[in-house]
Amino acid sequence: MQMFRIGMGHDIHALVDGRELWLGGVKIPFELGLKGHSDADALIHAIMDAMFGALALGDIGQHFPDTDPAYKDISSLKLLAKAAEIVAETGYKVGNIDCMIHCEAPKIAPHRAAIIETLATALKVEQNQISLKAGTNEGFDAIGKRQAIACQAIVLMVRE
To answer: With contact defined as beta carbons under 8 Å apart, do 46 and 152 qualify?
Structure first.
């Protein structure tokens, strides 16, 4: 049995009026929020997809379908906790996470420490096991035009 497994995840959501902006389990003050069935936290969704992918467990849509009313407006932190339980049943845990937020606005730097702390607490790992970067698309495409936020995550899963 393998000691290490690597997975990647990606998520993108449209920015819309009338929604709160949640990234990495942290509410970010901004005039727009992400459109989605749950709270649309694209960073947590990318991390969960990476965790599931590393262990060939499908994707978040299979575990938490957007057709299920139980997940309507749910906090993605609750979904992440459940994902961590599912992963733990396989005998693996998070070794480290490297993630990226692609957005033109808002600025992520003021929220970076809170996001890392929130994710580390939720996943029961040390903060130094989570790397978070952010960048703009320099005005290109839907992200650059402030119409969407995309997130990517790469996760190393380690057999306990």
So the answer is: yes
Ranges of the chain whose pLDDT falls below 50: none
Q: How far is CA 142 from the centre of its chain?
A: 19
Whole-model pTM above 0.85?
Answer: yes
Residue from 34, 63, 70, 66 nearest 49 by CA: 63
Domains of the chain (ranges plus CATH)? 4-159 (3.30.1330.50)
In angstroms and rounded to an integer, the radius of gyration of the C-alpha atoms of the chain is 15
For residue 68, count CB atoms less than 10 angstroms from its CB and return exposed for 0-12, middle for 13-18, buried for 19 or more: exposed
At 20, which amino acid appears? E
Taking only the tens place, the pLDDT of each residue in 67-91 is 999 999 999 999 999 999 999 999 9
